[in-house]
Amino acid sequence: MRGKGAAALAGLLGTVLALSACGGGSSDGDSGGGTNTGRGPFTFVTGKDLSGIMPYIAEEWNKAHPEEKVTIKQQSDAADQQLSDLQQHFQAKDADYDVVTVDVVWTAEFAAKGWIVPLKGDLALDQADLLPATVTAATYNGTQYAAPYDSDGGLLYYRTDLVKEAPTTWDELIADCEGKSTSGTITGSKPGCYAGQLASYEGLTVNASEAINAAGGTIVSDDGKSATVDTAEAAKGLDFLVNGFKEGYIPKEALGFKETESLNAFAAGDLVFLRNWPYAYSQLNGDSKVKGKFGVAPLPGPTGSGASSLGGHSAAISAYSKNQASALDFLKFLQSEEIQKNQLIKGSKAPVIASLYDDADLNKEFGYLSTLKESIETAVPRPVTPFYPAVTQAIQTNAYAALQGKSTTADALKDMAASINSAAAGG
Amino acid sequence: MSIVSEPIAENAAKKRGSRRRRGGGSGGGGLHSRDGRMALYLLGPTMVMLALIVGYPIVNAIYKSFQTDPGLDDSTGLFNEGNEWNGVGNYTHWILQQCNAVGGGTETCPSGNLGSQFWDSVWVTLGFTVVTVIIEVVIGMWFAMMMHRAFRGRALVRVAVLIPWAVPTAVIAKLWVVIFDPQGVLNNVLGTSFAWTSESGPARAAIVIADVWKTTPFIALLILAGLQGISSEIYESAKVDGANAWQRFWRITLPLVKPALAVAVIFRSLDVLRMYDLPWVLTQGSNGTQTISILVVKELASKLNSAAALSTITFVLIFAIALVLVRLFNANIVDRGTR
């Protein structure tokens, strides 16, 4: 009995090894990227539809294209789960994800892995009407890979009852905080002056990149393969945040702030200035202590204009899709003026068509629209690099060490650069 | 230590015995071999299923951990497939903290690369394990002894105590986020404005507090089950012999409750060693609270095979600690019958 059992076990183990061998060894040279002109029903994969716009989009499309119906597949509402869902489907070369929603920072990785098709040749798109920054963020290696369909930019929220005019430079912002008293439940030598999203997570990459870009620094080279962050300009930018904690114009609590925490602090009247996304506008106008007492402005910089990090999403065509021609029409549909306008009205999503920001009716309804345009026009995409996960780790870890005073700005930038370069060399 | 060697000797004797029996049985082709075939038919499908759903992923992950991850082809700007033989490269990346240098060769991983965070994560994880398990055992023992006494509403207390353990950890964690928020409940109660999750000391304390709050009941109930197995006559005769409360606890309660205690400690230790959700929700692993599991998940975002190596290291580490604990407690959990 024992002997047979052992033999059976050995057999099983053999099977397992054989299975794992074929699992690991499969590599057909299919890198995708080929264009096909297939037409037919397809699937649009997108993050959880919190704004409720998706049924409208599906209905409008299906009405006009009864032969090429779209099925909307909603993922989780958490970005990292959306990403891993997409990665799994692409790694399996799954044909049932035709059009996928790509967060601006994922484009380069998806493109470099051959998961999404380049939008050129038969699949070319006219992007002349779009905000340039959104197109840049959808481009990798000089080729457009995705069609931007909603955008996002950072805004400075300020207390109109405490500050008469929005500051345009960092120095003005810091000076504006002198002697202002907020609700005062957060600490520091200048309690509650300014805060952004400075906890150690993706939001810190956004905030640190904004500060560095505003001061004229860059983080990675144009091809995304090497670090360019160890410079005096970048140091000047990062120092705006580092000195904030040293001198107290950023409260210590902000080291734990993400979007919600920072918004809550401003809504409770604890901050004079807040950096956040446009979505905060309607929340602050709802149930908050600062309702009717705040305004929005573009982010300040060292000498005037700041630089926002670009948020938002694009739609891309899966390299494994069988109906790429239909998918391309759907991308054009998503970028059409009608859909863009309705996304804003029904879902509060910032459009990618530049002219919509000048629409008088829309401006009346969305008070932040012209400011947002200014923000997005000067926006710089976060590092466009196929190594984004490692690069954002490098930024977060080292910027956070500098904010906490555990590392000097110079050392933090040196480590950041080394870490980005090592990621490009394969970790 | 003589107690340890006893079961081993017993087992050895049994093995010898069974081998002899099998030797005799195979000649006759009698009852044993038919039983054996029957057992194989019954167990076979289960074994195949286990091999497929448990064995395959593990073996595959270990196999992958010796391969390279996709790298960027400079000429095309596209990633290659990776999956080439990499020897122990993924392992030295973590254990020796070696990273690929620009222009070839290796260098010590720079700060910000996940490779540089391996040992920190290991120590953080081990620290959490030791601290939470000790606190949980002490409080759990106290809880269990309280619940063991007869009093009105004892059943209610037992149910109430189990509630924190029954709620999903991620939900609990979110609850503690609200409590530890700078404007949160705890600061309001204490009248402080402490940034709990923004510094490594308080952030670690926050996680220990939340974990202890959640899982002490589990330990308490396991110990309670052990306590209820002890006959009250032993205590009575100890009292007659003049043993005081302290002596009764040390000489009677503790030794007799040890099997239950061992199960509790080993299960909890293994749980904490792969803890992910609580620190992830509370701090995202920042401020010195990054456990190995968080590191694995972060690495998974870009490098599958390297993450597989890290999981394998974690697996071996947990396995080794489990072995040590089992030895330490001299508890044969799998087969108590041999004791």
Characterise this structure.
- In chain A, 42% of the residues lie in helices and 11% in strands.
- By secondary structure, chain A is of the alpha/beta class.
- In chain A, helix 7 packs across helix 8 (232-247).
- The radius of gyration of chain A is 24 Å and the shape is globular.
- The termini of chain A are far apart.
- Residues 1-33 of chain A have low confidence and may be disordered.
- Chain B has 339 residues and is mainly α.
- Chain B folds into 2 domains: 30-64, no CATH class; 117-338, MetI-like (MetI-like fold).
- Chain B is 71% helix and 3% strand.
- Chain B is built from 13 helices and 4 strands.
- Chain B has helices at residues 2-28, 31-64, 89-95, 118-148, 154-166, 169-180, 185-190, 200-228, 232-240, 245-273, 277-283, 292-300, 304-329; strands spanning 72-73, 78-79, 98-100, 106-108.
- In chain B, strands 1-2 form a two-stranded antiparallel ribbon.
- Chain B is globular.
- The model of chain B is unreliable at 1-29 and 334-339 (pLDDT under 50).
- Chains A and B meet through helix 1, helix 3, helix 4, helix 9 and helix 15 of A and helix 1, helix 2 and strand 2 of B.
- Chain B: Belongs to the binding-protein-dependent transport system permease family.
- Chain B: InterPro entries: MetI-like, MetI-like_sf, Sugar_ABC_transporter.
What class would the helix/strand composition of chain B place it in? mainly alpha
Mean pLDDT of chain A: 88
**Envelope shape of chain B:** globular
CATH fold name of the largest domain in chain B, please? MetI-like fold
Helix content of chain A: 40-55%
Name the largest protein-protein interface in this structure: A-B, 74 and 68 residues
State the separation between the terminal residues of chain A, measured CA to CA. 50 Å
Round the Cα radius of gyration of chain B to an integer and report it: 26 Å
CATH superfamily heading of the largest domain in chain B: MetI-like
- Please tell me the overall pLDDT of chain B: 85
Give the terminus-to-terminus CA distance of chain B.
14 Å
Q: What topology, given as strand order, has the largest sheet of chain B?
A: 1-2
